[in-house]
Amino acid sequence: MRLADDRSNVGTALNEPITISRSFHGSPLPAGCRFPVLLTFADQWCSYRNPLARGPPPKMSQQPVQTVSRKLILLIKAGYWLALLIIAAMVIASFILLQQTMATQQHNHTLLDIVSTQKTLSQRIVFLASATGAGSRDKQPALVSALKQATAEFETNYNLLLEQTGADPQSPAKLDPKSIESVLFAKPFHLDYFSVGLIANGDRLISAYESQFTGNGGYKGDDERVNLDASVANATLSGYAALGQRIGANADGRSEKLLALHRTLFYATLGVIILVALFIFRPMSNAILRKTHELIDARNSMAFIAVHDGLTGLHNRTFLTDHFDTLIKGTHRRRERLAVVQLDLDRFKQINDTLGHAAGDYVLVVTAQRMRDSCRASDLCVRLGGDEFVMILGGAGGTEDINMLARRILAHINEPIVFQGTTILPGASAGIAVYPIDADNAQDLLVHADLALYSAKKLGGGNFSFFSEELRRELDYRKQLEHDIKVAIAERAFQVYFQPQVSLSNGTISGIEALVRWNHAERGMIPPGEFIPVAEKCGFMPEIGRIVITKAINEAAEWNRAGIAFGRLAVNVSGTELREHDFDAFLFETLERAGLPAQKLSLEIVESVILDDEKTGIAAKLRQIRAAGVHLELDDFGTGYASLSHVNPNEIDRLKIDRRFVQNIHENGDNSKIVRAITELARGLGISIVAEGAETEAELDSLMAIGCDQVQGYSIAFPMPHDKALEWLTARMPKKAKLTVLQGSLA
């Protein structure tokens, strides 16, 4: 099974956002592009490696973001509750002060009402006393009753007044001329003395009149002493008038103090609100505004990253998928042509392998910049992935216009690129499909441009090709072939052919290689070079590989149980298969189920597989497989770019010289020197070697003379199905000696 190595740099673009700081060759990057391309590639580029070099991008930790968010939320909550508590305290204080003011005012109104009532009652008592003395005898009882009621009410109100004011005759406050006590108990008013005297004289007068009415004892004083003194009444009236003024003055003073306190509290509340706004809500609002701007920037960055390539700043496949149909509709309305130019760098893998991935990234970025410089602002430049690009050119004009434009674009892209003193020739090729001539939808246009690109590459690269009817027929054939491959995978219709490897010195079988073959039910035998590239492009190779590995191991296990010598079974595996996470488990399970020892199996890998970065996990997986006893062979040695450090007897068991060095080796002195050097290198390292593609006796003689003992090729045997391979192996098994029993006299 010959599995072509998959391309290493067809992964997705780098995901990390990069900040643009400088453009290349003086050409500015497009507006809105936030992905720079490094300050100086000589000293900083190594930190940004392409997908082949670094594998999947590291995941950014969410812990710092969550911590900042929690702190911000805690700050907002704390500020909110602190401000709420301060404002609530100020409001409660204002409410209490207002309640106190209202209660004081009500108390003062009550006192003033009592004072006013007392003034009226004092005049009423004096009036009733005078009226009783001057009245007729029949009217005196009624007047005495009214006098008695007025006196009792006056006494009650006076007691209430003393209680409400809390006046104490022993209090030193009576010395204060502004106090209520001074009116009640001190000069010049002595209101308490005159009020008590008025009440006492009233009671005596009432008692005297009642004695006269009943003729019973009672008051015995003379009439003049019983009569109320007008001076007492006047003194009482003036005292209550002064008391009312004093109560009013005190009430006004307290009201002024309360109002002043209320104003102070009001201004303090305003000040607190202003301070809260300045020192709590303002920082909070600024923080919220800042975080909002950060979120908006992050959203915009995410939106930009979602539709742009992280390395080159071009639009990505997602953007093309979302907007291609819109471009086609606009072109249809304007009755114009739209050209789809798909580009690919011919030697990008070679640049990566020889100069490193930093050089590969640099070439990609410069290529993207040159694409921008070569087209109009209305045209669309897209990086599909790896070294594949697409340009969508609106209003493309006629075929000749597109032809001239494509030549100009390729000429600009193919200009030499200088990286750290090394001149790089990228060598881009292009395929062109035109709307509406070649297709009327986005998907078909891209497929047709890809086919045209493949056709241009077959012409030698550095050129471009238009989609044609011939390519359309190839596309139809390819689509049918894809369908047939799916059916063949489902039916496990792929067959395994075997080609032996022998020793030239003694003719023993050193190994046998398993090769995939497909005998189509209608088309017959389809060459591997025809269906394997299609299977690789469609991602079918891991499934085909497992089918072939399973069948080959099962067949080899039967030979091993039958005692048939076949050396080791060699099976080709690609990087795509090795990247499958369960490949090693599948391999060991298949060996165990078939009963084939691991030492009887070897895996053939190409040089690009061991060049793959450690982060893919392939290197570790190969070490694990080899530690289990499976041998590893480096296939097509000399055609790739493997470092001699990879030709290590601790990692590789056998080198396989590519057929290009073996064919006509007897006539080509350079190939003979190369094979001799490889042979001596392997012999010095203790690694076995096999040459493939030996087809003539002359080639076998040359290999034997060089010292390459093990060979594989048509001169030894053609690839054979399992039954023919079994016959071939059986025929070359060493003959066992037969024991002949002699009879009679011969014994």
Q: What is the secondary structure topology, with strand pairs?
A:
Blueprint: H1 51-54, H2 63-134, H3 140-165, H4 180-185, H5 191-214, H6 223-226, H7 230-307, H8 317-334, E1 338-345, H9 348-355, H10 357-374, E2 380-385, E3 388-394, H11 399-413, E4 417-419, E5 422-424, E6 428-435, H12 442-458, E7 464-466, H13 469-491, E8 495-503, E9 509-520, E10 524-526, H14 528-538, H15 541-561, E11 568-572, H16 575-578, H17 583-594, E12 601-606, H18 607-611, H19 618-627, E13 631-637, E14 654-657, H20 659-662, H21 669-685, E15 688-692, H22 697-706, E16 710-712, H23 722-731
Parallel strand pairs: 6-7, 9-11, 11-12, 12-13, 13-14, 14-15, 15-16
Antiparallel strand pairs: 1-3, 1-6, 2-3, 4-5, 8-9, 8-16, 9-10
Helix pairs in contact: 2-3, 2-7, 3-5, 5-7, 9-10, 10-11, 12-13, 13-14, 15-17
